[in-house]
Amino acid sequence: MQSKTNTDKKPTQRVIKKYPNRRLYDTDTSSYITLAEIKQLVMENEPCVVRDAKTGEDLTRSILLQIILEEEANGTPMFTAAVLANIIRFYGHTMQGLMGGYLEKNMQALMDMQAPLVQGTMGNNLFQQMQEQMQKQTEQLLGTFGLKR
User: Fold this and answer.
1) pLDDT digits over 85-121, tens only?
2) Contact (CB, 8 A) for 112 and 118
3) Cβ contacts of residue 112 below 8 Å, gap of 6+?
């Protein structure tokens, strides 16, 4: 992902460099940062990319997966073993590309719903209906691949 510039010539995407010693360097603040601080950037919707300091290779996905792994290991996990097993089953499957888009759309729907839910403008009944609809869609999608809960 290339960083874009605005009229101030400031990158709209924060660049984090990962060095061979596994340290992460925030080029915006000119300081080293931790995975927890990258998680905070994500939580604040701060666009960022992690690049290998030597090769320039985009490492963003692997860093985000590392953050998810830490979150799953600490506290209450979001993914059950069954969910993770089903995700693994999609790798190499002809429908692998569709699964990513499907998950992305449903996550965006949840994010879009989050603000009204937090503000109390969405009733429990509507939330329950949406949850049931997403569950049915998921079961239908998994059923097409011969996968069940």
Assistant:
1) 988 988 988 888 888 888 888 888 888 777 665 555 5
2) no
3) none
Backbone angles phi, psi at 114, to 5 degrees: -60, -45
Rounded Cα gap, residues 79 and 142, in angstroms: 16
Tokens encoding 121? 């403008």
- The model's pTM is 0.69
Q: What is the pLDDT of residues 9-19, one digit of tens each?
A: 555 899 999 99
| CA 9 to each of CA 12, 26, 28, 47, 49: distance values in angstroms, whole numbers, following the listed order | 9, 18, 13, 16, 17
Q: At what angle do helices 96-119 and 81-90 cross, to 10 degrees?
A: 140
